[in-house]
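Lecture 7, part B: from sequences to assemblies.

Below are the input chains for today's worked example.
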Amino acid sequence: MSAETQAGLTTPTTQVFEIYIKAPAASVWDAITDPQWNAKYGYRAPMTYGLRPGGEFRVNANAEMRSMGLPDVIIDGEVLECAPPHKLVQTYRWLFSPENKAEGFTKVTWEIVPTEAGFTRLTVTHELDGAPQMAAAVKSKFSTHGGGGWSWILSDIKTLLETGKTLSE
Amino acid sequence: MRARSHGLLLCGGRPATLPPALTCDQMVTYGFPMPDDDLVFKALADSTRRFLLDLLFVQDGQTLTELESALAMSRFGVMKHLRVLEGAGLVVTKKSGREKLHFLNPVPIRLLHDRWTRKYAEHHVSALVELKSQLEEKKCQPKRKRA
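Predicted structure of the full complex, as C-alpha coordinates:
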Protein backbone atom coordinates (compact mmCIF):
# COMPACT_ATOMS: atom_id res chain seq x y z
CA MET A 1 0.00 0.00 0.00
CA SER A 2 1.43 3.37 -0.97
CA ALA A 3 1.86 6.35 1.31
CA GLU A 4 -0.87 8.19 -0.59
CA THR A 5 -3.54 5.60 0.03
CA GLN A 6 -2.54 5.30 3.66
CA ALA A 7 -3.03 9.04 3.97
CA GLY A 8 -6.70 8.47 3.17
CA LEU A 9 -6.80 9.87 -0.35
CA THR A 10 -9.15 8.17 -2.73
CA THR A 11 -7.76 6.16 -5.61
CA PRO A 12 -9.73 6.96 -8.76
CA THR A 13 -11.58 4.11 -10.44
CA THR A 14 -10.61 5.03 -14.01
CA GLN A 15 -7.06 5.89 -14.99
CA VAL A 16 -5.82 7.16 -18.33
CA PHE A 17 -2.29 6.87 -19.70
CA GLU A 18 -1.19 8.34 -22.98
CA ILE A 19 2.06 8.27 -24.92
CA TYR A 20 3.31 9.39 -28.33
CA ILE A 21 5.50 6.98 -30.25
CA LYS A 22 7.47 7.50 -33.45
CA ALA A 23 6.27 4.30 -35.07
CA PRO A 24 3.39 3.27 -37.34
CA ALA A 25 0.14 2.10 -35.75
CA ALA A 26 0.66 -1.47 -36.99
CA SER A 27 3.98 -1.71 -35.11
CA VAL A 28 2.38 -0.42 -31.93
CA TRP A 29 -0.42 -2.98 -32.36
CA ASP A 30 2.14 -5.79 -32.77
CA ALA A 31 4.11 -4.59 -29.76
CA ILE A 32 0.96 -4.99 -27.66
CA THR A 33 -0.55 -8.17 -29.07
CA ASP A 34 2.36 -10.31 -30.31
CA PRO A 35 4.08 -12.35 -27.56
CA GLN A 36 7.37 -12.15 -29.47
CA TRP A 37 7.22 -8.40 -28.91
CA ASN A 38 5.35 -8.01 -25.66
CA ALA A 39 7.73 -10.30 -23.75
CA LYS A 40 10.52 -7.80 -24.42
CA TYR A 41 9.32 -4.84 -22.37
CA GLY A 42 7.68 -4.10 -19.04
CA TYR A 43 7.71 -7.15 -16.80
CA ARG A 44 8.95 -9.40 -19.62
CA ALA A 45 6.23 -12.00 -19.43
CA PRO A 46 4.68 -13.11 -22.75
CA MET A 47 1.05 -12.04 -23.27
CA THR A 48 -1.14 -14.04 -25.66
CA TYR A 49 -4.36 -12.70 -27.15
CA GLY A 50 -7.15 -14.51 -28.94
CA LEU A 51 -7.72 -11.57 -31.30
CA ARG A 52 -11.51 -11.75 -31.65
CA PRO A 53 -14.40 -10.87 -29.33
CA GLY A 54 -14.53 -13.61 -26.71
CA GLY A 55 -10.88 -14.55 -27.32
CA GLU A 56 -8.75 -15.53 -24.38
CA PHE A 57 -6.11 -13.25 -22.92
CA ARG A 58 -3.39 -14.63 -20.69
CA VAL A 59 0.01 -13.66 -19.42
CA ASN A 60 2.35 -16.53 -18.65
CA ALA A 61 4.92 -16.22 -15.91
CA ASN A 62 8.49 -16.11 -17.15
CA ALA A 63 11.17 -18.36 -15.61
CA GLU A 64 12.18 -15.76 -13.06
CA MET A 65 8.57 -15.27 -11.93
CA ARG A 66 8.01 -19.02 -11.59
CA SER A 67 11.13 -19.31 -9.48
CA MET A 68 9.60 -16.65 -7.21
CA GLY A 69 6.60 -18.94 -6.71
CA LEU A 70 4.12 -17.15 -8.97
CA PRO A 71 1.48 -19.24 -10.78
CA ASP A 72 1.95 -20.23 -14.45
CA VAL A 73 -0.74 -17.79 -15.55
CA ILE A 74 -0.28 -14.48 -13.74
CA ILE A 75 -2.89 -12.35 -15.55
CA ASP A 76 -6.00 -13.44 -17.44
CA GLY A 77 -8.94 -11.90 -19.21
CA GLU A 78 -11.05 -11.85 -22.34
CA VAL A 79 -10.97 -9.81 -25.54
CA LEU A 80 -14.17 -7.76 -25.81
CA GLU A 81 -13.47 -5.75 -28.94
CA CYS A 82 -10.73 -6.15 -31.53
CA ALA A 83 -10.18 -3.66 -34.36
CA PRO A 84 -6.56 -3.90 -35.51
CA PRO A 85 -4.53 -1.76 -35.50
CA HIS A 86 -6.66 0.87 -33.76
CA LYS A 87 -8.58 -0.48 -30.83
CA LEU A 88 -8.45 -3.39 -28.42
CA VAL A 89 -10.79 -3.71 -25.45
CA GLN A 90 -10.21 -6.47 -22.92
CA THR A 91 -10.85 -7.58 -19.39
CA TYR A 92 -7.86 -7.90 -17.12
CA ARG A 93 -7.44 -9.75 -13.83
CA TRP A 94 -4.36 -10.33 -11.73
CA LEU A 95 -3.66 -13.79 -10.37
CA PHE A 96 -0.51 -13.00 -8.42
CA SER A 97 -2.20 -13.71 -5.11
CA PRO A 98 -5.64 -14.81 -3.81
CA GLU A 99 -6.30 -11.15 -2.85
CA ASN A 100 -5.57 -10.02 -6.41
CA LYS A 101 -7.78 -12.75 -7.85
CA ALA A 102 -10.61 -11.77 -5.50
CA GLU A 103 -10.62 -8.22 -6.90
CA GLY A 104 -11.86 -9.74 -10.15
CA PHE A 105 -11.83 -8.45 -13.70
CA THR A 106 -11.12 -4.86 -14.64
CA LYS A 107 -11.35 -3.38 -18.13
CA VAL A 108 -8.50 -2.10 -20.29
CA THR A 109 -8.97 -0.18 -23.55
CA TRP A 110 -6.01 0.32 -25.88
CA GLU A 111 -6.48 3.05 -28.50
CA ILE A 112 -3.94 3.63 -31.24
CA VAL A 113 -4.33 6.80 -33.30
CA PRO A 114 -1.91 7.44 -36.17
CA THR A 115 -1.20 11.04 -37.06
CA GLU A 116 -0.37 12.54 -40.41
CA ALA A 117 2.96 13.70 -39.01
CA GLY A 118 4.06 10.07 -38.85
CA PHE A 119 3.80 9.28 -35.17
CA THR A 120 1.21 7.43 -33.18
CA ARG A 121 -0.73 8.18 -30.03
CA LEU A 122 -1.33 5.25 -27.72
CA THR A 123 -3.90 5.65 -24.95
CA VAL A 124 -4.57 3.08 -22.24
CA THR A 125 -7.79 3.57 -20.28
CA HIS A 126 -8.04 1.27 -17.29
CA GLU A 127 -11.42 0.99 -15.55
CA LEU A 128 -10.66 -0.26 -12.07
CA ASP A 129 -14.00 -0.42 -10.27
CA GLY A 130 -13.80 -2.73 -7.28
CA ALA A 131 -10.04 -3.26 -7.59
CA PRO A 132 -8.34 -0.85 -5.16
CA GLN A 133 -5.13 -2.89 -4.90
CA MET A 134 -4.65 -3.00 -8.64
CA ALA A 135 -5.61 0.67 -8.93
CA ALA A 136 -2.91 1.68 -6.48
CA ALA A 137 -0.31 -0.51 -8.20
CA VAL A 138 -0.91 0.50 -11.81
CA LYS A 139 -0.83 4.15 -10.81
CA SER A 140 2.36 3.73 -8.81
CA LYS A 141 5.18 6.13 -9.34
CA PHE A 142 8.62 5.12 -10.46
CA SER A 143 11.00 3.66 -7.97
CA THR A 144 14.66 2.88 -8.19
CA HIS A 145 13.80 -0.84 -8.17
CA GLY A 146 11.87 -0.61 -11.43
CA GLY A 147 8.16 -1.10 -11.66
CA GLY A 148 5.88 1.88 -11.88
CA GLY A 149 2.67 0.62 -13.42
CA TRP A 150 1.38 1.64 -16.84
CA SER A 151 3.63 4.70 -17.04
CA TRP A 152 6.66 2.48 -16.92
CA ILE A 153 5.27 -0.12 -19.33
CA LEU A 154 4.27 2.51 -21.93
CA SER A 155 7.61 4.26 -21.57
CA ASP A 156 9.33 0.92 -22.21
CA ILE A 157 7.16 0.21 -25.31
CA LYS A 158 8.16 3.61 -26.68
CA THR A 159 11.84 2.97 -26.09
CA LEU A 160 11.64 -0.49 -27.68
CA LEU A 161 9.84 0.74 -30.81
CA GLU A 162 11.97 3.83 -31.26
CA THR A 163 15.40 2.46 -30.43
CA GLY A 164 15.12 -1.33 -30.64
CA LYS A 165 16.25 -1.51 -27.04
CA THR A 166 14.41 -1.41 -23.74
CA LEU A 167 14.93 0.69 -20.64
CA SER A 168 16.77 -2.03 -18.78
CA GLU A 169 19.23 -2.70 -21.62
CA MET B 1 -12.54 11.80 -38.10
CA ARG B 2 -11.26 11.39 -41.64
CA ALA B 3 -14.69 11.96 -43.14
CA ARG B 4 -14.44 15.69 -42.65
CA SER B 5 -11.17 16.10 -44.50
CA HIS B 6 -12.91 17.01 -47.74
CA GLY B 7 -14.33 20.17 -46.21
CA LEU B 8 -11.03 20.90 -44.55
CA LEU B 9 -9.17 20.75 -47.82
CA LEU B 10 -11.31 23.65 -48.97
CA CYS B 11 -10.34 25.48 -45.84
CA GLY B 12 -7.01 26.74 -47.19
CA GLY B 13 -8.45 28.21 -50.40
CA ARG B 14 -11.78 29.78 -49.51
CA PRO B 15 -12.18 29.95 -45.76
CA ALA B 16 -14.69 32.81 -45.84
CA THR B 17 -17.27 30.82 -47.78
CA LEU B 18 -17.28 27.83 -45.46
CA PRO B 19 -19.89 27.23 -42.81
CA PRO B 20 -18.44 27.17 -39.27
CA ALA B 21 -18.61 23.39 -39.03
CA LEU B 22 -16.08 23.03 -41.85
CA THR B 23 -13.58 25.67 -40.84
CA CYS B 24 -9.98 25.02 -39.90
CA ASP B 25 -10.19 22.38 -37.23
CA GLN B 26 -6.49 21.71 -37.16
CA MET B 27 -6.86 18.79 -34.78
CA VAL B 28 -8.79 16.99 -37.50
CA THR B 29 -6.89 18.16 -40.56
CA TYR B 30 -3.30 17.98 -39.56
CA GLY B 31 -3.21 15.81 -36.49
CA PHE B 32 -1.92 17.05 -33.18
CA PRO B 33 1.64 18.10 -32.45
CA MET B 34 3.82 15.61 -30.62
CA PRO B 35 4.40 16.88 -27.09
CA ASP B 36 8.07 17.22 -26.23
CA ASP B 37 10.12 17.78 -23.09
CA ASP B 38 10.05 21.56 -23.53
CA LEU B 39 6.27 21.61 -23.41
CA VAL B 40 6.26 19.43 -20.30
CA PHE B 41 8.80 21.60 -18.48
CA LYS B 42 6.94 24.77 -19.45
CA ALA B 43 3.65 23.30 -18.31
CA LEU B 44 5.16 22.31 -14.97
CA ALA B 45 6.84 25.69 -14.46
CA ASP B 46 3.66 27.25 -13.11
CA SER B 47 2.28 26.76 -9.59
CA THR B 48 -1.37 26.91 -10.68
CA ARG B 49 -0.82 24.16 -13.24
CA ARG B 50 1.04 22.03 -10.72
CA PHE B 51 -1.86 22.57 -8.33
CA LEU B 52 -4.30 21.39 -11.02
CA LEU B 53 -2.22 18.24 -11.47
CA ASP B 54 -2.23 17.71 -7.69
CA LEU B 55 -6.02 18.03 -7.68
CA LEU B 56 -6.26 15.36 -10.38
CA PHE B 57 -3.77 13.16 -8.56
CA VAL B 58 -6.05 13.18 -5.51
CA GLN B 59 -9.23 12.72 -7.56
CA ASP B 60 -8.86 11.86 -11.21
CA GLY B 61 -11.50 12.45 -13.86
CA GLN B 62 -12.83 15.84 -12.71
CA THR B 63 -14.91 18.31 -14.72
CA LEU B 64 -13.89 21.91 -15.39
CA THR B 65 -16.52 23.06 -12.88
CA GLU B 66 -15.08 20.84 -10.15
CA LEU B 67 -11.52 22.01 -10.81
CA GLU B 68 -12.59 25.63 -11.00
CA SER B 69 -14.22 25.43 -7.55
CA ALA B 70 -10.83 24.67 -5.96
CA LEU B 71 -9.14 27.72 -7.48
CA ALA B 72 -9.61 31.45 -6.95
CA MET B 73 -9.55 32.04 -10.68
CA SER B 74 -11.96 32.67 -13.54
CA ARG B 75 -13.33 29.73 -15.52
CA PHE B 76 -11.50 31.07 -18.54
CA GLY B 77 -8.21 31.20 -16.62
CA VAL B 78 -8.57 27.59 -15.51
CA MET B 79 -9.42 26.58 -19.09
CA LYS B 80 -6.26 28.25 -20.36
CA HIS B 81 -4.10 26.40 -17.86
CA LEU B 82 -5.80 23.11 -18.68
CA ARG B 83 -5.14 23.67 -22.37
CA VAL B 84 -1.41 24.10 -21.67
CA LEU B 85 -1.43 20.88 -19.64
CA GLU B 86 -3.29 19.08 -22.43
CA GLY B 87 -0.82 20.39 -25.02
CA ALA B 88 2.01 18.89 -22.98
CA GLY B 89 0.17 15.58 -22.70
CA LEU B 90 -0.06 15.89 -18.91
CA VAL B 91 -3.85 16.02 -18.94
CA VAL B 92 -6.05 13.84 -21.14
CA THR B 93 -9.76 14.54 -21.55
CA LYS B 94 -12.49 11.98 -22.05
CA LYS B 95 -16.15 12.55 -22.82
CA SER B 96 -18.54 10.91 -20.39
CA GLY B 97 -22.12 11.59 -21.45
CA ARG B 98 -22.42 15.37 -21.67
CA GLU B 99 -19.45 15.96 -19.42
CA LYS B 100 -15.79 16.35 -20.28
CA LEU B 101 -13.58 14.71 -17.66
CA HIS B 102 -9.94 15.59 -17.07
CA PHE B 103 -7.44 12.83 -16.27
CA LEU B 104 -3.88 13.18 -15.07
CA ASN B 105 -1.52 11.45 -17.49
CA PRO B 106 1.66 10.64 -15.57
CA VAL B 107 3.50 9.23 -18.60
CA PRO B 108 5.31 12.43 -19.75
CA ILE B 109 6.74 12.86 -16.25
CA ARG B 110 7.83 9.24 -16.33
CA LEU B 111 9.55 9.89 -19.68
CA LEU B 112 11.38 12.89 -18.26
CA HIS B 113 12.54 10.64 -15.46
CA ASP B 114 13.62 7.83 -17.78
CA ARG B 115 15.35 9.95 -20.38
CA TRP B 116 16.66 12.89 -18.48
CA THR B 117 16.49 12.88 -14.70
CA ARG B 118 17.47 9.29 -14.07
CA LYS B 119 21.05 9.62 -15.25
CA TYR B 120 21.67 12.14 -12.46
CA ALA B 121 19.56 10.48 -9.79
CA GLU B 122 21.14 7.08 -10.38
CA HIS B 123 24.61 8.44 -9.81
CA HIS B 124 23.59 9.49 -6.31
CA VAL B 125 21.76 6.27 -5.63
CA SER B 126 24.64 4.09 -6.79
CA ALA B 127 27.13 6.16 -4.79
CA LEU B 128 25.04 5.59 -1.67
CA VAL B 129 24.63 1.89 -2.41
CA GLU B 130 28.39 1.62 -2.79
CA LEU B 131 28.98 3.47 0.47
CA LYS B 132 26.52 1.16 2.24
CA SER B 133 28.22 -1.99 0.93
CA GLN B 134 31.66 -0.65 1.78
CA LEU B 135 30.59 0.16 5.32
CA GLU B 136 28.88 -3.18 5.75
CA GLU B 137 31.88 -5.05 4.39
CA LYS B 138 34.12 -3.34 6.91
CA LYS B 139 31.75 -4.30 9.69
CA CYS B 140 32.09 -7.97 8.75
CA GLN B 141 35.85 -7.89 8.72
CA PRO B 142 37.64 -9.01 11.87
CA LYS B 143 38.30 -6.11 14.20
CA ARG B 144 41.81 -4.81 14.29
CA LYS B 145 43.62 -4.83 17.52
CA ARG B 146 43.61 -1.51 19.22
CA ALA B 147 46.92 0.13 19.82
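Note for the exam: The helical segments of chain B are 5-13, 26-29, 37-44, 47-58, 64-69, 75-87, 107-140. Keep this in mind when comparing with the next example.
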